[in-house]
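Q: My labmate handed me this sequence with no annotations at all. I'd like to see what the chain might look like in three dimensions before we decide whether it's worth expressing. Could you predict it?
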Amino acid sequence: MRLKQSVLLTFFFVLATIPLIFGARHPLVQGLYSFCLLIAGGIWLVLNFAENKKRLFSFNNLAPLAIILFIAVSALPLPLSLVRLLSPVRAENLAAGARIAQLHELVTSLSYYAPGSMFYAIYGLALFFFFLAFSSLLRSGKNQRTTLWIITLVGVFEAAYGLLQATNPALGVLWLPSDISSRECARGTIIYRNQYAAFMNMCWPMAFVLGISLYKPVLAKLDFLRQQKKRLSIADRIEFLFHKATVPFWSGAFMILALIFSRSRGGIVVMFILAGLLIFLLPFSRRSKILSISLLSLFIFVYGGMIGFQVVTNRFMFFYNSALFRFHLWFVSLAMLKDHLVTGIGMGSYQFLSPVYLKDVPDRVWFDHAHNEYVEMAIELGLPAMLLFMAWIVRGMSGYLRQIMQNRKTAAEGRSGQIVAIGAFCGISGLLLHAAVDFVWRLPANVVYAVALLALLNAALKQKESGKDENRERLD
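A: Here is what I predict for the chain of 476 residues:
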């Protein structure tokens, strides 16, 4: 029991703090958090191996393990003859370098940056252990509720900080100067505004589903009082309006407002898509949905109007030109994949080869990312591993969506686990959509939160709530 609490507290600590230092983007900070997840999750997995043994041999777990193993192998030193067989262009480049340096019996890796690839392999293993352990711990409704509160509180902190940055141009990111990254844009403690927008798109759906789950017992209580008294008193109505569930609702609204003033075009478009998806999946009446949309829109227009929407709309004036340039960037980047079709160039290697391959881009700009995670990962992993990765995502997300649609009836009856599953599915979908136009997966905070939402989704759909558990939650 002590070990269980220690592992759980470690995971809660990671969720509560990983966004604070620039989203753990610095390799040392990322390494520290990866170490915490690797040790805590690894210990949990070893001590509960019998329970998780069957889970390990499913496609949903074997696919990411195979990709992690491939990344690790790509970082290992191999004979030049084997490299020539697997990646001829890589071998040709190595041979040319060896002739210039007058080296003999060259042994090297498939990855152009072996230390970075090995780091990604360890990082991926830490995330895998984190998912297995956290999804087991989240079968408890209490742990789910705590996780939702942590995500909500972190999200509203980032939103408040971001809105201060949007209204005060002199305010930078923590101790960094204000001219670092985008001035007058909401970005919280995360330097890059698009990564910040992707993070907020994972937080605000969870805040709303937390508010919904908290209001469920209140609505049942109001129905009971209405039947007993036949008319609600003013005190009962005030208690309903100022219930603690209003905190997540207000928090989610402020997160959306901060996301809009991040001026991330991809983030804003994804936010509207997620709002439509969330409204569609929630099993409420049309009247309730229209009322909720109206109140949220009124909040955004009133408070957003005080700041001024013109700075946001101006960003969309250049949407077409920006989209054309990004399409061009993706197209010229695919030359790397053509030369390394089977094995890729190695995780983390794009930034080192982009100056060589990107011929038709401005010389003064160094593109360390392709601004499309799917293109960049295909280049770094190679086609076979990328196809496996895409099959894993499509199979997993379609399976979760099918379960959510089948369970909408139980969600309508007040099963909080199903409501949580809907929010987690929307949050993960947002990150997957935004990844098509930016490098949002490269921020460790985003990936850790995505894995946490995946664990929440997995646990919530498998949770078997008895009538006794339901009554206890309603009393709480």
